[in-house]
Specification:
With 437 residues, this protein is α/β, with parallel strands linked by helices. Helices cover 42% and strands 11% of the residues.
Length: 437
């Protein structure tokens, strides 16, 4: 599961209690009211004869929203004389669900979850993009063709997840010794309504590196049971690495710490944790900037994995809900080389657009290296498993990761529960999440 990139992060739920869904229900009610008001405001502006407008919902807030507005939205507005009514929310899934239920969805949405988008496509809420976007510009793992033969999304921003960050002054021998000490890992499970996703990232990546893309794909498609030996081994490997159920203070800190703050001890004196299994976007956090963060492939530190068997990746995916002239122009623009370059300049992320050669990346050495990894045609890229799963399974997976971290003895029960949920009729599963397989 991918992080909401902007805004404050809150702590994960307490370890002895399963996360309540009440905050989500409250958020949904509030979002429904806001959606009705927003729709009325937009309709009023259009009725008054102002310039054409397009509504856009994404999860960028704070500094990310400012960058998106200045680098991407404002150039579009100047060029096409079309106003973009942008809404950024850290509870984007809940807001979108409320908007769709109220019959007032945005024209364009940017989501991190292809599994969620596939569900909307099945409900006929999304517009196929073949006439607007060249699939070959992004590749099959990024612009997935669903079973109906259509493509409904493409990435504006991409990140690599199969990596571990460490300070520049930590040598290779010290790095490998640290990997065997749970206290050396920077872990923060908090992320508001989506708390737990850092744990799912761990488990997904361990499965990929130990057993390869074919096993990973079977699991993400719902064909490999959660209680299979491979999946169960991924959970127990994570347990040993981070000390799940062990040192009470260590576990408490991991459960209470927002993911954005997990790396703070890296910059303290004396230094606390020194390793963080986290996506490429975390390199922009102050602690890793101060420590001059470097990275290694997670396969180098995961027990039972000798070399990268694939790279877990994530992305912010653009989809079209209303087929208006203004929305079509925005879709074409967001898929263009110019917009992709503008959003990803300044090391704010990566583009996988085929028209942007990775070798020409203007960033630092680590940024250029990861850009090459993302665009390497010989490498296997597998989309974040939980993001690709049906939302109900994704959310239950994140909750299970929180509970397991505190109580690993409950693993069998948690896996049985996930198997039961995954077997629910009517869920939408992606046909494929890995390229090169």
């Amino acid at each position: 599961m991918s992080a909401p990139p902007g805004g404050p992060a809150t702590a994960a739920p307490a370890p002895r209690r399963r996360p309540s869904r009440r905050p989500v229900r409250v958020a949904t009610v509030v979002a429904s009211c806001l959606a009705v008001l927003a729709a009325a405001a937009v309709a009023g502006v259009r009725t008054l004869g102002h310039e054409p407008a397009v509504t856009l919902l994404a999860n960028w807030t704070g500094g990310d929203e400012t960058h998106f507005r200045e680098a991407v939205i404002e150039p579009f507005e100047r060029k096409y004389r079309i106003r973009v009514d942008y809404q950024g929310s850290n509870a984007e899934s809940q807001v979108l669900g409320a908007d769709v239920e109220a019959g007032t969805p945005p024209d364009v949405v940017v989501l991190t979850g292809p599994g969620e988008l596939a569900g909307y496509a099945r409900q006929k809420q999304l517009v196929p993009l073949e006439k607007l976007v060249r699939r070959e510009d992004f590749g099959p793992s990024w612009a997935t063709r669903l079973t109906d033969g259509h493509v409904y999304w493409f990435p504006l921003k991409a990140d690599v997840k199969s990596i571990v960050w460490y300070p520049a002054d930590v040598g290779a021998q010290e790095l490998r010794k640290a990997a065997g000490r749970p206290a050396a890992w920077c872990v923060g499970m908090g992320s508001g309504a989506t708390s737990g996703w850092p744990g799912t990232d761990w488990i997904e990546d361990i499965l990929l590196q130990r057993y390869g893309p074919a096993v990973y794909e079977r699991w993400v498609r719902g064909d490999l049971p959660w209680d299979s030996p491979q999946v169960k081994a991924a959970w127990t490997t994570w347990q040993r690495l981070v000390g799940a159920g062990g040192d009470r203070e260590l576990v408490r800190r991991a459960l209470k710490t927002p993911y954005q703050s997990a790396s703070l001890p890296v910059a303290r004196h004396p230094r606390g944790c020194v390793l963080e299994h986290q996506a490429s976007f975390i390199r922009g956090r102050p602690a890793w900037q101060q420590a001059d963060g470097r990275y290694v492939s997670s396969a180098e530190l995961i027990p039972g994995a000798s070399a990268p068997r694939g790279w877990e990746v994530s992305g912010d995916l653009v989809a079209l809900l209303h087929d208006t002239p203004q929305a079509r122009k925005l879709i074409r623009y967001l898929a263009s080389v110019d917009a992709q370059r503008a959003w990803n300049e300044g090391e704010s992320g990566f583009s996988v657009h085929a028209g942007l050669p990775a070798a020409a990346d203007p960033g630092s050495a680590w940024h250029r290296s990861l850009a090459l990894t993302l665009r390497d045609p010989q490498a296997v890229h597998c989309f974040d498993a939980s993001d690709a799963m049906p939302p109900a399974v994704r959310d239950a997976f994140a909750e299970a990761a929180i509970e397991f971290l505190a109580h690993p003895g409950r693993l069998d029960r948690l896996l049985r529960s996930l198997d039961t949920l995954a077997g629910t009729p009517g869920l939408t599963w992606l046909p494929s999440v890995c390229d090169g397989t």
